[in-house]
Amino acid sequence: MKKIISAILLLSVITVMFASCNNGGADITLPPEETTSPVAENTVYSFIYKNTAITPHAKMSELLNGIGDPTFYEESPSCLYQGLDKDYTYPGFKLRTYPENEVDYVLNVCFTDDSVATPEGIMLGSTRSEVINAYGSSFTEQNGNVVYVKGNTELRFRFDGDSVSAIEYWAIEQ
Amino acid sequence: MDYKDYRSKYNSEPVHKERPAPSNGKQIIYAIAALSVLLVVVIALLLGNMFSRPDFVARSVTVEAGRSAISPSDFLIDKSHTAEFGDGVSYSLSEVGEYKIRLIVDGSACVTKLIVVDTNAPTATVTDLSVWQGTELHAEDCVSDIKDATKVEVKFKKKPDLDKAGRQDITLILEDGAGNKTEYSFVLTVVDEHGLLYTHYVSELGDELPSADVFTGREGAGKYLSELSGINKDAAGIYMLQVLCDDVAYDVVLEIADRTPPTATVTPQTCYNKIPAASDFISNIVDKSSVTAKYETEPALISSGTVNVNIVLTDAFGNSTVYSSYFTVTSDTEPPVIVSAPDALEVDAGGTVIWRASVEATDDSGQVELSLDASSANLNLPGKYTVYIVAKDGAGNETKRAVTLTVHDAGVTEDMLWAVVAKIEKNLKITSKMTAEEKVYAVFRFVYDNMKYSNTSKHIDWRKEAYEALNGAYTGDCFTYCAVSYSILRYLGFDAHIVERAESAKIEGTGTHFWVLVNIGTRVSPEWYHFDATPQRSPYNLATYLMTNSQIEAYTRWRNADYKLENYYTYDVEKFPEVSKRPLVNLEIPSEYFGQ
To answer: What pTM did the predictor assign?
Structure first.
């Protein structure tokens, strides 16, 4: 009997020790709080619509709340990706996505009329010098397109004479 | 029965001679004690379970004192869970210490710890000082703008001698509540009754130049030895001058600067669903330099009502003034008015519409957003469409004006197309010495490397598709890649056909696909091969430019495994010339997909 009672007591002590031990995860030290807004240069090109930044490679599902429903939508099986290529029409631009593991990401944004402008103020009809004033002279010419690259995004301008005839934001495939 | 009787009854030999067996009463007491302990254990376990902390909750979170806020999610290692503070959680982010934090994570309570530390030493502004001999000076009087999360004590490292005239190097020690220390040094000038009190004086921009007494601190005790006529009181500047005081000439600095904060008239604003700019509130600014206005804290927009704001005016010298004001968000039900707009718009198929400059609209809010609703138009398909110019104000009221949009047939002829191909011919890097296979490969590389995939094609007109792509767009889907390849191959003299996936192969969820059949032989001895420059993702991104039927069948079987039976290269064989059986390109298709 004493052995059994002793065993219960010992077991109890061990159990209480474990019960009172801390469990759970690691210690965390939070980084210092930013007291001022950092003025960091953007590392990608983004088009702003309804105060929402549309950046190539962004998840489409995370943009829809901000940019709202398109005026027209169509989809078709992709020749390149596994899934559907999707095409969203908004006033002034088209947005196309590519699928990856059943998630849609922004492939490109193409301006369709001159009611929209880039955040730097360039729109269809702007001049070549206005483009260069806004984006600088660090660009490449590819098949008649003036191409600016930032990170995994690309901003392309095409010209009809001296005026911009096409503006496209593109995702650069990694 | 006593112990001996008990033993003799149940046991012929004693087992524990030295330890008498407990009586029944003692056994019961032991049992009760054991059960009590067990009960305590069970309660401890229950409590332990109630407040046990999952692995995704931090054991402790350490923050720097002075932090503005901490959120329950800061305690989560895995942020996919939800957390909120439990009742009675109390802590101070400005006081160093450890705080017990009760969290409700995913609906269950647990306990963790907040550790507030102060590892940053205090900072302050310390400048050189001049005092009269014999006066009293406290360490706190020598600093300003102390910054630290905790209370800071200021003391002299060595107490200055205020009875002795002259310059002294003084060190101040600032120590915060956590023991962090900072030392600042400055020059203290103890001035006797014959010296200068200041050697540096800042005069307000625009004010009359000060008399020399501002340096001596005594009325009528000093006069300028330097000529002042070259000093412009209306321009900021620093001037090295000499002042005579008690027959001694001293070097002094007269600085002219703007130290007066700007003033302005601030007018509350009314807006329609848009936050006014801080500068909208400001008029009649009075300052001697340029002034900027910004919100102290960016306000949030509400649907209607009043929002209080603080607006900070800052001049070029860093002087600032804060004004309080407000803006009222009002409901607006009046739609904008489209004053002028064209009756019709025109565009070439595939082009972009330029219309914005020809439309004028007004609204009582002064804010109108114009857009073109061309969702009913197909800008790639010639025809007449009704589109709408939409004027929308900040409150969402809108006015639409119907406009006829005519999409003109771009009218791409083969001559136009060959002219465009001729322009890019040099980029193909084709020479007369190349074999047919090499030329076809050069076309494959050009299309593959220069085009960008996007599902933009309408699969209508291969000439127009190729023309627009080679004219600068360089984008499209498989139809565009096919059209461009087909055009270039034809331009180079190859006989070619456009092939589309067989209708019978387009089963559920499978779209279409286009590629080219090209003859690298002659008309008499043709050698037809499949050619497809449409890009593919790894591992299907092979050199698919001269493929036999056997190869495209194997490729199709291979992709079918991943792409849910899309029948990639399945086509109506009988509608096209017979394809060569002689493989020219080694495609790295797994062998098991051949010959099935």
So the answer is: 0.53
